[in-house]
Amino acid sequence: MTAIAPRPRLRGFTAESVFVGRSLTQSLRDGESLSMSILLPVMLMLLFTFVFGGAIEPGGAYVDYVVPGIILLCAGFGAATTATYVARDMSSGIIERFRTMPLRSGAVLTGHVVASLARNLVATAIVIGVGLIVGFRPHADLLAWIAAAGLIALYILAITYLFASIGLAAGSPEAASGYGFIILFVPYLSSAFVPVETMPEWLQWIADNQPITPIIETLRALLMGTDMGTEPWWAIGWCVAIVTISAVWGAWLFSRKSRRH
Fold first, then answer.
1. DSSP SS3 for 175
2. What is the pLDDT of residues 98-109, one digit of tens each?
3. SS3 for 122?
4. Residue 168's closest CA among 77, 111, 96, 249?
5. Which Pfam family, any one, appears in the UniProt record (predicted)?
6. Residue 78 in contact with residue 120, Cβ under 8 Å?
7. SS3 for 167?
C-alpha cells in the first residue's frame, strides 16, 4: 500500500491573503455591523457637538476637542466585531476544516486582523469627513496628518488583536460581544470628552494611567497643534504592549483551542 505524502504548506503569504479576502467578504456581507460601527461614532459626535457642546464649550470650539476621541471610539466599535467573528469561527467547527489544510494556524487570525484594520481605516476616514462637515478645523500639515494616520493605524491594530484574543477566549459569539462591550467604555474614562483635570481626583489617576488618554492627547496634538510633551512615547508604548501581549495570548489560545476540536 502506497503512503500518501502530506501536502506541502502554502508558501509566502498565500494563506494570509486568502483569509484576509474571506474576512473582508464577511464584513461586506454583514452590512449591519459595518454600518453601525460608522453610524454610532457619528451619532455620538453629533450628540456631543450639538447637544452637550454648548454647555461644555459655549464658544463652539468643542468639536475640535471631541473629534480625536471620537476617532478612537470609531476604531473601537469597528474592532469589536472582530471578537464576534473569531468566536463564531471557533464555535462553528470550521477550524477543524482549516486544520486539515496545509496552512499556518495563525493565518486565520491574521485574516481577521488585517481585514479589521482595512475596514476601520475606511470608517475612520468617514468619521473625520463628517467631523469636517460639522465644524472640525484641524491645524495639521501633511507630515502631521501622516503621523496621525500612522498612530490611528497602530491603535486599530492593537485594539483588533485584543478583540481577536477576546473572541478566542470567549465561549460563544454572544459572550465575545459582551466582553467587547465592556472594553468600549474605557475611552469614556479618558480625556476623550472632557479634560482630565475636571474629573474627581480619584478618577483623574485612572484617566491619566490608562492607554487611551496618551493616544488621544498625541492625536489631538498632531491635529490641533497642542503641546505633545511625553505623550507620544506613552501612546506608542501602550500600543506596542497591547499588540505584543494580545498576539502572544491569542496564539496560545488558538493553539490550545484548535487542539481540542
1. helix
2. 555 555 556 667
3. helix
4. 249
5. ABC2_membrane
6. yes
7. helix
Biggest CA–CA distance in the chain, Å, is: 84
How far, in Å, are 54, 190, 202, 244 from residue 111 at the CA level? 43, 31, 41, 17
The secondary structure of 191-232 as a DSSP string is: TSSS-GGGS-HHHHHHHHTSTHHHHHHHHHHHHH----TTHH
What cell was used for 119? 475596514
- Grid coordinates of 112: 481577521
Compute the residue count for the chain: 261
- One-letter amino acid identity for 259? R
Q: State how far the Cα of 167 lies from the Cα of 83, in Å rounded to an integer.
A: 4
- Per residue in 33-85, pLDDT (tens digit) is 667 777 877 887 788 777 777 667 766 678 888 888 888 888 888 788 888 87
CA dihedral defined by 39, 44, 47, 49, rounded to 10 degrees? -110
pTM recorded for the entire structure: 0.84
Residue type, 34: L
**Which ranges constitute the DSSP H helices of 93-141?**
94-99, 106-133
Helix (H, G, I), strand (E, B) or coil at 139: coil
Return all residues near 212 (Cβ < 8 A) that are at least 6 apart: 72, 186, 187, 189, 190, 192
